[in-house]
Amino acid sequence: MISRRGTLFVVSAPSGAGKTTLCRELRERVPGLAYSVSVTTRTPRPGEVSGQDFRFVTETEFRAMLARDEFAEWASVHGNSYGTRARPVEEALARGQDVLLDIDTQGAAKLRSRYPEAVLIFIVAPSMAELEQRLRERRSDGDQEIARRLRRARDEVALWRMYDYLVVNQDVKEALEQLAAIIQAERCRITRLSLKLPDLEVPE
User: Among 72, 103, 177, 200, which one is most buried in terms of CB atoms within 10 A?
Assistant: First the structure.
């Protein structure tokens, strides 16, 4: 009765804003939401699984994928390379399946250019002080690296108007509710739908 092409949802946030946690819980909460696993050259963090959190590759492997034009977008962030493989994303969208991407601001800008209909969502912590505290609580970076991430965070937050939606992650449960509501609303957007009723002619 109702058919549509899948929607690409792109979520960005400064390091420490809670993007990874929210995206993981969103995938468990919202049915029919595919997750595109990014390719990266960075070292896995404790608990991360290759193929589930990221696809971890060497710099040589990444460059080979780049030479084969496998990426819909790619960027260098904090000294590491990240990329989104185009084929799995485009196959899912063609099947009518929504796709969730957890990606930085550089990648989001490139994806908006390639997929103008994509929905971009930006997540921020309630303050820079709170962001710094979260980075320190992770205990995975030294003072110099934290300072570098905070500088980049200021640059990223300045780009928030490039996005379609803004979510302040002060409370994980509330932020998750907002993200789920955004997806449900976009799924009902008229411009994304094709309506066919068996007993009625419906103009497109």
Answer: 103
